[in-house]
């Protein structure tokens, strides 16, 4: 199975989509309310946390299922998933949210 075909699997693309949704939410929140820290976490922060935490079992399932079968392609997909997660976390750490 090649990488493009593997990327069409839900366990491959869902973590990337979830990371991009979390990134869009953080950037939207910063655009609307600024990068200031709030006393109480709002709904956006909770949704961000849920999106990021819910990725872990999906990525683990992908790794357990596909790393033994096609390690080269699976490592590439895992790198994309991890990169998307880091992209989503970067504004949170940069703006100290």
Characterise the protein shown here:
The chain is an all-alpha fold and 97 residues long. It has one domain (3-33, 41-94). 79% of the residues lie in helices and 0% in strands. The chain has helices at 3-7, 10-33, 43-66, 71-94. The termini are far apart. 22% of the residues are buried. The mean pLDDT is 92.
Question: What keyword list fits this structure?
Answer:
mainly alpha
> Tell me about the biggest sheet?
none
Report Rg.
15 Å
Mean pLDDT: 92
* Cα shape: elongated
Low-confidence stretches: none
The number of helical elements comes to 4
Secondary-structure element series:
HHHH
Put the structure in a nutshell.
With 97 residues, the protein is mostly helical. The chain is built from 4 helices and no strands. Helix 3 runs antiparallel to helix 4 (71-94).
Task: List the topology elements.
Blueprint: H1 3-7, H2 10-33, H3 43-66, H4 71-94
């Amino acid at each position: 199975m090649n990488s493009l075909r593997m990327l069409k699997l839900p366990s491959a693309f869902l973590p990337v989509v979830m990371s991009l949704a979390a990134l869009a939410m953080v950037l939207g929140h910063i655009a609307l309310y600024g990068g200031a820290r709030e006393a109480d976490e709002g709904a956006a922060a909770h949704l961000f946390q849920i999106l990021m935490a819910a990725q872990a079992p999906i990525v683990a399932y992908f790794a357990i299922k596909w790393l033994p079968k096609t390690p080269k392609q699976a490592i590439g997909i895992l790198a994309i998933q991890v990169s998307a997660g880091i992209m989503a976390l970067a504004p949170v750490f940069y703006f100290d949210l």
